[in-house]
Amino acid sequence: MLIKEYRVILPMTVEEYHCAQLFSVAEASKQETGGGEGIMVVHNEPFDVKANKWPPKTPLLGNRANGQYTYKIYKLQNKVPKFIRLLAPSGSLEMTETAWNAYPYCRTVVENPGYMKENFFIKIESMHVQDAGTQQNVHQLPPDLLSKREVVYIDIANDKLYSNSDYKREFDPKLFKSEKTDRGPLVNNPWWQNYNGPVMCAYKLVTCEFKWFGLQTRVESFIHTMERRIFTNFHRQVFCLTDQWFGLTMEDIRQLEERTKRDLDSQIASGQVRGTKAED
Q: CA distances (Å), 48 to each of 65, 127, 168, 252, in order?
């Protein structure tokens, strides 16, 4: 089992990020869906632990009792490395994502119930705080887990991208300047050094386990490499879409999510495979 805490520093308030993240997830989902692969949204609705509506298996941090529940299915045949595709039987590379968004805390669990079952999971616990990543144990880990945790800072403007194909000029924080907020470009290294605007941190604690003799270490390392890649690319996009999400309300976001669900249902059965592919 590998545990890493990714600290993503962002030029916005915690309140703004709530809408910014949801807006960008909807946009990114459309970019990753097509040709029989991508994301299907099965459930997206409020949850209430006290009412026994979509309760998580274990208590949420701070005993948070309500928020938004989502359940998604990911079809990933071309989005995993070749060595996994060769080992996994046809149709087994379908993942489920269950999420409880009790903002500013969120928990997401990715599983493979059809094949790996209890031998595989990725758990992402996110806490959003108005600081520059200075909290030492925001997830309240016990000493045994805290000693295993590795902290990784992500600088959306300066960190090297995983692949040249990940670079999109329109999502380059060193070039983008928001007309609505006057934020950017992010030119310092680190970008938040001497920055005059709001600064927040998304603390993302990622725990992954892949029980397969001879492959566990390699696959768990690959999962963390991909999580860092996803967090970096996604949050570059979040910032560079500022002028599209700034000023939206949560009602606007829910309407957008419903439209996106219909679009994804249509896209997944047509066209070509889109978005990020594994590099073998």
A: 6, 19, 39, 22
CATH class of 2-267: alpha beta
Per-residue pLDDT of the chain in tens (280 residues, 90 and over written 9):
899 999 999 999 999 999 999 999 988 877 765 555 678 899 999 999 999 999 999 999 999 999 999 999 987 655 454 545 445 555 566 889 999 999 999 999 999 888 888 898 999 999 999 999 999 999 999 999 999 999 999 999 999 999 999 999 999 999 999 999 999 999 999 999 999 999 999 999 999 998 887 878 888 898 999 999 999 999 999 999 999 999 999 999 999 999 988 888 787 666 555 455 545 4
Per the DSSP assignment, residues forming a β-bridge with 210 are 120
pTM of the shown model: 0.89
Q: Any idea what the Cα angle at residue 121 is, between residues 110 and 213, rounded to 5°?
A: 145
Length of the chain: 280
**DSSP H helix total and E strand total for the chain:** 6, 8
CA distances from 130 to 17, 89, 205 (A): 11, 45, 17
Domain ranges of the chain: 2-267
Backbone phi, psi, residue 193, to 5°: -70, 125
Is the dihedral angle over the CA atoms 209, 108, 203, 80 positive or is it negative?
A: positive
Cβ pair 128, 203 in contact under 8 A = yes
Q: Which two tokens stand for residue 16?
A: 């703004």
Instruction: For residue 267, give every residue at least 6 positions away whose Cβ sits within 8 Å of its Cβ, in sequence order, or none.
Output: 30, 33, 34, 38, 274
Write out the two tokens for 17: 């990020």
Residues in Cβ contact with 68 at an 8 Å cutoff, skipping those fewer than 6 apart: 44, 45, 46, 47, 100, 101
Edge-first strand listing for the sheet containing 2-10: 38-48, 66-75, 94-102, 105-111, 120-129, 200-210, 2-10, 150-155
